[in-house]
Amino acid sequence: MEKLSNPQVTIEILKKYNFAFQKRFGQNFLIDPLVVEKIIRAAEVTKDDIVLEIGPGIGTMTQYLAEAAGKVYAVEIDKNLLPVLDETLAEYHNVKVINNDILKVDIKELVGNREVKVVANLPYYITTPIIMGLFENHIPASSITVMVQKEVAMRMQAGPGSKDYGALSLAVQYYAEPYIVANVPPNCFMPRPNVGSAVIRLTKHARPPIEVCDETLMFQLIRASFNQRRKTLQNGIHNASDLSFSKEQVVEALKTLGLSESIRGEALTLAQFGALTNILKQMK
């Protein structure tokens, strides 16, 4: 069949199946072939690759992925899209569609220990849980190339001191190197979202860029530091319900690092958060 990245073909398929967009699934289908091609190029998909696609929708990007990759696993939560995908992907025998919530899929079991490339046009309301789930569960992915809300892409790539810098920036940069590939305007989607989008590629680090003795504790400290941005870092950590450090301990740790006791979380680099974690861990 003709490519779904042609808006007319998308309209015909949606009419044929009397498809109603589900707001709860954050469905915005791509209708721009140039954007789809840009995503495939950025993901550097080859016939040697296994691709995990999250939310194939009606199969717009899946068609391109199937032509570029060796195997595609497409995880779709909306069962109403299954008959549509049966038709739009009929000629691609290297695609397996899985009807499930990506947050509930055992990806390691699905792909074995084989490395995958994750490619997706992600629903905006659940972008962060999906990306952090992929990282924290240490799935064997070499890269994650995704369409997200532009503001979220900016946060993933932000550095210390900027307004976009926060817990998400640090978490993403601990696991991967972020690179914004392209900005995508609302008119490239059906229906049009209310915000601009961006394609971001997260290239997984072979090993984290810093050494930290307790990954879980570091992320607890990071979250506590950004929960209330106006607070000093020592107050944020001291007041966090899942931590039990006194203000004195935090001040002592900051002094050891040569940092002011009135510093805020947004001023610390990932390396400094790692060093802070290692010092506080010894105080426990």
Explained architecture:
The chain is 40% helix and 18% strand. The chain has 284 residues and is of the alpha/beta class. The strands form 2 sheets. Strands 4-3-2-5-6-9-7 form a 7-stranded mixed β-sheet, sandwiched between helices. Strands 1-8 form a two-stranded antiparallel ribbon. Helix 9 crosses helix 12. The radius of gyration is 21 Å and the shape is elongated. The termini are far apart.
The sequence of SSEs as H and E is HEHEHEHEHEHEHHEEEHHHH
Major sheet characteristics:
7 strands, mixed
Count every beta strand, where a strand is a DSSP E run of 2 or more residues. 9
Task: Report Rg.
Answer: 21 Å
Put simply, the count of helices is 12
Mean pLDDT across the residues is 95
Low-confidence stretches: none
Distance between the termini: 63 Å
Give the structural class. alpha/beta
Spatial ordering of strands, largest sheet: 4-3-2-5-6-9-7
Per DSSP, what share of the residues sits in E-state strands of 2 or more residues?
15-25%
Oligomer: single chain
The backbone outline, from C-alpha atoms, is: elongated
User: Approximately how much helix is present in the residues?
Assistant: 25-40%
